[in-house]
Design brief:
This protein is mainly α. α2 packs parallel to α11 and α5 runs antiparallel to α7. The radius of gyration is 22 Å and the shape is globular. It starts with a helix and ends with a helix.
């Protein structure tokens, strides 16, 4: 086995989508259009929040992490997948494959933790409006954002650090991008500890995210029913419905993809498509939900565009 390991090439070969010859360039340009649209929308959302002082509020500082996380996820995944569609070979240096997998898992955990932090902020704003300013201080917001990224980084780093104890003895990944389950299939030796830690990380992320959001939304619902205030109900609906839709869709696709690695009978093409969707749903929907559906951001963006047009 050591000799086989030493003879391995310094790259790994990724799988590709099976696309008819006449369809690969239309699919490539469609994917490029989607990627450009996602980057443009998320960069615009970041720029508006950073540059406009009226948006320098706790809710938007927490929201800022979401487009940044989306940009990381879609950039780590989609360009490589698109290049594999048109290229004759789909190879990637092994260290870059590990980096891609690390960033993609960081992205997945980031979505769950950021949505949890945003739901908690909405809980404080709607259920304790008079105490909102004293509770969600700049220091508190900085602590929340730091906790989100630190917890995410520590869990994912632990997951990938365990790979160093294993020896790579294969070079073909049966997926269109690199992720932790695919990397483990390249290794020889007992990977049971890695699998247990992977499931533990997933359980922790899900437990923290779902618990915080369930608590926040139940409290918001109770507050709206008890007070009977139309403005409170409208604020809750406008703030939470879009976020819940994104979370539910992400959970369905993510859960299917995670479980599909443990059931060999799942069609490989379906597994690949669902895996790619994980990194497209949030970057596509978040700028629309929070950029167009959030009144303050939408009005600020419209004022900026109006000033640019009529200057």
């Amino acid at each position: 086995m050591p000799n086989e390991s030493l003879s391995l090439p310094p790259y790994v070969s990724l799988d590709r989508f099976v696309i008819p010859l006449g369809g690969k360039y239309p699919v490539f340009f469609l994917g490029l259009l989607i990627y450009s649209f996602c980057v443009f929308c998320n960069v615009t959302l970041v720029a508006v929040i950073v540059l406009r002082r009226n948006l320098h509020k706790p809710v938007y500082f927490i929201l800022l992490s979401l487009p940044l996380n989306d940009l990381m996820g879609i950039t780590a995944m989609l360009p490589k997948v698109l290049s594999g569609i048109v290229a004759e070979t789909n190879r990637i240096p092994y260290p870059l494959c590990v980096l891609q997998a690390f960033l993609l898992h960081l992205y997945g955990g980031g979505i769950l933790f950021i949505l949890a932090a945003m739901s908690f902020d909405r809980y404080v704003a709607i259920c304790m409006p008079l105490r909102y300013s004293s509770l969600m201080t700049p220091r508190a917001v900085a602590c929340v954002i730091t906790l989100v990224w630190t917890l995410d980084f520590v869990l994912i780093t632990l997951l990938f650090a365990l790979q160093t104890r294993l020896t790579r003895c294969r070079s073909v990944i049966a997926n269109v991008f690199c992720d932790n389950p695919s990397l483990l299939k390249l290794m020889c030796g007992d990977a049971s500890v890695n699998n247990v830690v992977g499931l533990f990380n997933t359980a922790v992320m899900q437990a923290v995210s779902v618990t915080v959001q369930a608590f926040s939304y139940v409290k918001i619902l109770i507050a709206c029913v008890v007070t009977g205030r139309t403005d409170a109900k409208k604020k809750a609906v406008n703030t939470c419905v879009g976020q819940l839709v994104i979370l539910i869709v992400f959970e369905i696709v993510g859960t299917f993809t995670i479980l599909s690695h443990r059931f060999p009978n799942v069609p490989r093409d379906l597994q690949k498509i669902m895996g790619v969707l994980i990194f497209l749903i949030s970057p596509l929907l978040n700028p629309l939900v929070y950029g167009l559906y959030t009144t303050e951001i939408r009005n600020t963006l419209l004022r900026v565009l109006k000033n640019r047009v009529f200057v």
